[in-house]
Amino acid sequence: MVNDPIGDMIAQIKNASMAKNQYVALPHSRMKEAVAALLVAQGYLASLEATGEMPKRTLRLGIKYDHGEPAVRDIKRISKPGLRWYVPHDKIPNVVGGMGIAIVSTSRGIMTGGEAKKLGIGGEVLCTVW
Asked: What is the per-residue pLDDT for 2?
């Protein structure tokens, strides 16, 4: 049993990119799908595909590479089940001097830290990617 599904997803993406795998498959959840869709939109993942029927749906994520190097240089879990990290909009972290993104779960859905700052809403900082 996995206690931190988002943390597990992050570890699988990181391990697959370091091993130069083309795809990674993991169990489906709406939260994971929203985070993966954001990573695809921001250019860190190549593709997202949800396959199968409930309750055995899976997510198939395509790992993106730029000239043989993974697009995801590093991805870190910030808010964990044992210590949730909630911040107001003015305390959302700036990742690697603006070169990366923070993924924030807000009352209006999952979005990047920049979008949350523009809307003036805070939330739970799920992870940082660069």
From this structure: 74
Residue 1 has what pLDDT? Answer: 61
Q: How far is CA 113 from CA 5, 15, 32, 121, in A?
A: 21, 24, 17, 10
Q: What string of DSSP letters covers the chain?
A: --S-HHHHHHHHHHHHHHTT-SEEEEE--HHHHHHHHHHHHTTSEEEEEEES-TTS-EEEEEEPEETTEES-S-EEE-SBTTB--EE-GGGPPPGGGGTSEEEEEETTEEEEHHHHHHHT--EEEEEEE-
Residue 118 CA to residue 50 CA, distance in Å, equals 30
Domains of the chain with bracketed CATH: 5-70 (3.30.1370.30), 75-129 (3.30.1490.10)
